[in-house]
Structures are given as C-alpha cells and as structure tokens.
Design a protein that fits this description.
Length: 271
C-alpha cells in the first residue's frame, strides 16, 4: 500500500489531472492525501474543487483532503464577515470572480455586504459543505499529514487549529524528529536550503517533509509517494517529471523506505 500526497493546488486543475494520470495508484489499496488550499490564485478554481469532491466521492475511504488556511479564510469571510480573505496577496479575487462571474471593487461598507451576499449565493452549497467538512490533519501508519506544520513537535490532535493551518516555524522545519510529517503552506523555495538539496524542489530534513513547490509560472504541482519516495511533478506548460529520491534522504524516511522494501521481499509462507 502506498500514500500519494499532493501539495497546495490553488486552482491548478490541469496540473492536478496530469498528476492523477501519472501516479500508479491502486484505488482499492492506495490512499491519496491532498494538503489543502484548493482555492485562490489559479484559473480553474471551481473545477478543481469539483474534481476533488468527485475523487473523494468515488472512493471516500481512500481519498483525504485536509483543510488549508485559504479554505479557512473563505469560510471565515462567508460565515463571519472576516476580511483577511480579501487581501490582495491572498488571491481571493480569482475565486470570487470565477464563482460569481464578476469582478468586485470595495469602496464602502455597502460594497462589502453586497459582495459577501453575492459570493454566498454563487458558491454551490456542495462546495461550501465540502470546505466545512475538511479535517485539520490525517494520519496513517507511515506519516502525519497537515497543511502548515506542527506545534513544538506535538501530535496534530494536540496542536491548535491556527498552528496547523498557518504556522511557519523554523524550529519545526529544522528540528522536528518525530513521526514523519508531510506539509504544504510554505513554498519550498522559502524553506532552509539544506533540506532542499537533491530533492527536486521539495524539502526533507529530519522528519519534516514540505511539498508545496510554489505558485509561479514555472512551479510544478508535486506529489510524493510514500514509502517509496517517488516524486511526481506536473508543470503548467504540460510537461511532467518523475524522480526517485535517493540523495540526502533523512534517516526517518530512509528507515520507512527500508521497512517497505523488506516487507515487499519477505518470503510467502504457506500454512
């Protein structure tokens, strides 16, 4: 059994579809984990959300999507009127335009209220309920999976929701040594150089594994297969790449890989 972990999507529907067509997934036995941030910035946001919903609906026991801070900001705006989601750096204008079919400018309170009402009416209820249903973490026998990171090396169930969704903690990036934890949120070019060497754009240091390989024109969408440490990447221009990670692999991940290899080659005993 393998787990295929996919980094922050941000509306990149074509790249997601390319990844899903690349990975050698056994739908009955393998698990797909998406690390959140499906919305904002990209040019196919509603379609990306729809694809993930359909993927999960087809195999709910083997497809998991954790909540990202962008889904949380959208819900906070929709349900409580929080304005952080509207900051230009967030990219929510892409989500708003694609769901409502309009560009909005906010100059006074009335504009804000109208935008919130219009977006709420335009967002399909199935999508809103999907965002509300997303868990803050997932765990299997191989690793922990969260959007942003862990708090002081704690298990995700003992971390605050804010930390799981928002943290960018250098101590976690450089010093975490617990059960392997795969995360997104922080683009890997912003993570410490030592963990990026030889890893084709993702980050691995001790037990921390970052796979948000960024959102610029030449950024790939990345998928890591555990425990095999195979990396699949789909680029905006349509090309793809597959890498076997062998260089500078931290010991916790190398041990995971060795256990898998030993199990795969164990003799079959008839009784």
């Amino acid at each position: 059994m393998s787990t295929f972990v996919i980094g922050d999507l941000h509306g990149r529907r074509a790249q997601l579809r390319a990844l899903l067509s690349m990975i050698p997934r056994d739908a009955e036995n393998d698990t797909v984990v998406l690390l959140g941030d499906l919305v904002d910035r990209g040019d196919e946001i509603p379609g990306t959300v729809e694809d993930v919903i359909n993927l999960r609906r087809a195999n709910p026991d083997r497809v998991v999507c954790v909540r990202g801070n962008h889904e949380q900001m959208l819900l906070d705006f929709l349900e409580g009127g929080a304005t952080l989601w509207l900051h230009v750096a967030v990219g929510s204008h892409c989500t708003i335009q694609q769901y409502t079919g309009e560009w909005f400018r906010i100059r006074k309170e009335k504009d804000f209220l109208e935008l919130r009402e219009r977006f709420g009416a335009s967002l399909p209820e199935e999508h809103a309920e999907f965002f509300r249903s997303l868990p803050l973490f997932y765990e299997d026998e191989m690793a922990l999976y969260v959007h942003a990171g862990l708090e002081g090396g704690k298990h995700p169930r003992d971390c605050s929701p804010h930390h799981l969704l928002w943290s960018r903690d250098p101590d976690f990036f450089k010093g975490y040594t617990g059960k392997p934890c795969v995360f997104g949120h922080t683009p890997t070019p912003l993570l410490p150089l030592r963990g990026r060497l030889g890893h084709h754009g993702i980050y691995m240091h001790n037990s921390a594994v970052g796979i948000d390989t960024g959102y610029v024109e030449n950024s790939p969408l990345s998928c890591l297969q555990l425990p095999e440490l195979l990396l699949y990447q789909a680029f905006a221009d349509g090309h793809t790449a597959t890498h076997q990670l062998t260089a500078f692999v931290p010991e916790p991940l190398r041990a995971l890989q060795k256990r898998h290899a030993a199990g795969a080659h164990a003799p079959t005993v008839e009784v």
